[in-house]
Specification:
105 residues; 4-stranded antiparallel sheet; 2 helices
Length: 105
Amino acid sequence: PYLEVKCGKTTVNNKDNYITKDLNPIFGKMFQIKAKLPRDGKLSVKVFDHDLIGANDLIGSTDIDIEDRFLSWRRASCGLSQQYIKARRSKDKWRDALKPVDILK
């Protein structure tokens, strides 16, 4: 698989650095894209399956509202936090079965 990252009119296609024969790849990539808020407020990340013959297949995608993350009172950063909210009644409660630290292992 390989990544395609898009923000505003800028697209970074990492097709040349695809990972072969791995069902659970760890990309470990960082892309820097200049963006102006609010115009370029959406970051789109797509994962494609690399095919030597024919079209590449879309495995999955997500859209991240970077303006909302930037203006959040928590100043959320991309990735998983080392701390998380445990309170049962909080709307921002951590909802995954695993703790963030366990997911990163």
